[in-house]
Write a structure and sequence with these properties.
The chain is of the alpha/beta class. About 55% of the residues lie in helices and about 15% in strands. It has a domain of about 120 residues: Rossmann fold, CATH 3.40.50.11890. The chain is built from 15 helices and eight strands. It has a four-stranded parallel β-sheet with strand order 2-1-3-4. A four-stranded parallel β-sheet has the order 6-5-7-8. Strand 5, helix 10 and strand 6 form a beta-alpha-beta unit. The chain is globular, with a radius of gyration of 20 Å. About 40% of the residues are buried.
């Protein structure tokens, strides 16, 4: 299969049907033993300091890999991807643009998919056959998510890792399926997390902090039971066609679509507090205004750039946020006991 880099979650069914091996460049970047090196490589080639580290990291991955083709999402993700695509062309890469429709309309999505299929050398009939083949794999990811929030058998970081990897299924969906099935079997034999741990929702794009944030939360008596965007990568509402599946995928569209999904999950998963991660220099950070106005649960906003580990300032903020949530929980539990005794 010919390798093709992708800059975010895309209709992978079309690429697989066309004989490509999709590789999520974000995952390669953040899992590199030294991601700072990839950022600095981009800066040496002229990328400005005030440009998102993910864009610079993707560029760095491209420069140091054997990938020669990149599918760039030009609408529905990062506005900087458009210019990244132009620079990659300059460097000799074959680039393939893909634009999500401005709104989640099945007919418009179908047109975008057919255009992508034509450029890739496949058909939507073949893409739908791949969709059917991926259904059991996606169901495994949903099962792991259920074990996280319903049964307390999966950590927030494990949830993040397997769900975020569903963007390209770790470059091999057969292997991903086998490995995830083994993980699920193993998790079912664990003892659950204590019921008194705080239940945290993580919303926003996956962070540069990775494992560090999740482990620090657990160290301080809290665990993530909802990873918003990572869950969306698994296509939790698959619909009846490829076009409907990617119309139900919330990330590329209005923030209010995301907000509806988030609000529903906060209630369903009995969340005590929300951490909203924003990436430095990213336009999506402005959406924090809307989240803070609309989400009634306690919310903390944390920004990351290219540090990759929580600094002491953010550790202190996380501790204070968790202390506040725990105080609120105890107060509510006390009020409930008083009401029950009356």
């Amino acid at each position: 299969m010919h390798k093709i880099g992708i800059t975010t979650t895309v209709p992978i069914e079309v690429l697989l049907a066309a004989g490509y091996q999709p590789i999520d460049l974000n995952n390669v970047f953040i899992n590199d033993p030294n991601p700072e090196r990839l950022v600095r490589l981009a800066e040496r080639d002229g990328f400005p300091l005030n440009c998102c580290s993910w864009i610079k990291g993707i560029y760095g991955v491209c420069m140091q890999s054997d990938i020669d083709t990149v599918l760039c999402v030009t609408n529905g993700d990062c506005s900087n991807t458009v210019m990244l695509m132009e620079v990659l062309k300059l460097k000799g890469f074959k680039t393939m643009p893909f634009a999500y429709p401005e709104e989640p309309d099945v007919n418009k999505m179908q047109f975008a998919l057919e255009t992508l299929a034509g450029k890739s050398g496949t058909t939507m009939t073949e893409a739908d056959e791949v969709r059917q083949e991926l259904k059991p794999v996606r169901k495994l990811a949903h099962a792991l998510d259920d074990l996280t929030w319903q049964h307390g058998l999966v950590s927030g970081f494990e949830n993040h890792l397997w769900l975020v990897s569903s963007s390209d299924f770790n470059q091999d969906y057969h292997k991903y399926s086998d490995q995830l099935q083994n993980v699920i079997t193993s998790c079912r034999n664990r003892s659950p997390y204590p019921d008194d741990m705080l239940r945290i929702a993580y919303i926003g794009v996956p962070s540069v902090y990775g494992r560090d944030l999740y482990h620090y939360l657990e160290k301080n008596g809290a665990r993530v039971v909802f990873n918003e965007i990572q869950r969306q990568f698994t296509m939790p509402r698959p619909g009846s066609s490829v076009a409907e599946q990617y119309s139900n995928y919330t990330y590329p569209y209005s923030i209010y679509r995301r907000l509806k999904d988030i609000s529903d999950e906060l209630t369903r998963r009995r969340v005590d507090g929300v951490i909203h991660y924003v990436q430095a220099f990213c336009h999506r950070g402005i959406g924090d205004i809307i989240f803070r106005d609309s989400i009634k649960s306690p919310i903390m906003t944390i920004e990351g750039n290219d540090d990759f580990f929580l600094n002491q300032h953010n550790r202190t903020r996380v501790e204070a946020f968790l202390d506040m949530i725990m105080h609120n929980r105890k107060r509510l539990e006390g009020n409930e006991k008083l009401a029950a005794n009356k």
